[in-house]
Amino acid sequence: MIDERMVSELVELAQGARSNSYAPYSRYRVGAAVLAESGKVYTGANVENSSYGLSVCAERVAIWKAVSEGERRILAVAVATENGGTPCGACRQVMSEFGSGDMPVLIVDADGLKQRFRLDELLPEAFSGSDLLHDSEPG
Ligand code: THU
């Protein structure tokens, strides 16, 4: 559970992170803020490339910043766009690696908080490390 003060903080930080978006190709600016277990918040923005497939979403930038600083669990994610778009499938899967099914995912548009989901609403029946067969099947 996160309190409403933290919800507001994540919303504002995600909106602020949008200003660092590098999106000259799509012109779709995205900002993200991730609350990690340590209590620290990590922000990210989408970073595009002229070789389009190399572009990275804001959510993954924020999560990779957190994990590369030593975090292993995330407690909430906020994603800010102009129109309140929801996270792509790849980002939902990356969220599920580090967050639980009941983790709040806050969808933010230009006016503020628009929708609030649990991660397992956005990614039901997620594939996870526990689905990997280790000893039972030959490699
Ligand atoms: N994008 C994100 O940053 N997050 C999402 O969840 C959806 C898409 C970015 C990727 C690309 O830079 C732009 O939005 C258009 O797809």
Tell me about this structure.
There is one protein chain. With 139 residues, the protein is of the alpha+beta class. It has one domain (4-124): Cytidine Deaminase, domain 2 (3-Layer(aba) Sandwich), CATH 3.40.140.10. 28% of the residues lie in helices and 22% in strands. The longest helix is centred in the N-terminal third of the chain and has 14 residues, at 4-17. The chain is globular and about 50 Å long. It starts with a helix and ends in a 17-residue tail after the last helix. The mean pLDDT is 97. The protein binds tetrahydrodeoxyuridine.
Briefly note the CATH topology name: Cytidine Deaminase, domain 2
Write down the oligomeric state: single chain
- Average pLDDT figure: 97
Major sheet? 5 strands, mixed
Broad structural category? alpha+beta
Summarize the structure.
This protein has helices at residues 4-17, 58-68, 89-98, 119-122, and strands at 31-36, 41-45, 74-80, 104-109, 112-118.
Keywords:
139 residues, binds tetrahydrodeoxyuridine, alpha+beta, 5-stranded mixed beta sheet, Cytidine Deaminase, domain 2, globular
Secondary structure elements and their pairing?
Elements: H1 4-17, E1 31-36, E2 41-45, H2 58-68, E3 74-80, H3 89-98, E4 104-109, E5 112-118, H4 119-122
Parallel strand pairs: 3-4
Antiparallel strand pairs: 1-2, 1-3, 4-5
Bound molecules: tetrahydrodeoxyuridine (THU).
Tetrahydrodeoxyuridine binds at residues 23, 26, 28, 30, 46, 48, 55, 57-59, 87-88, 91.
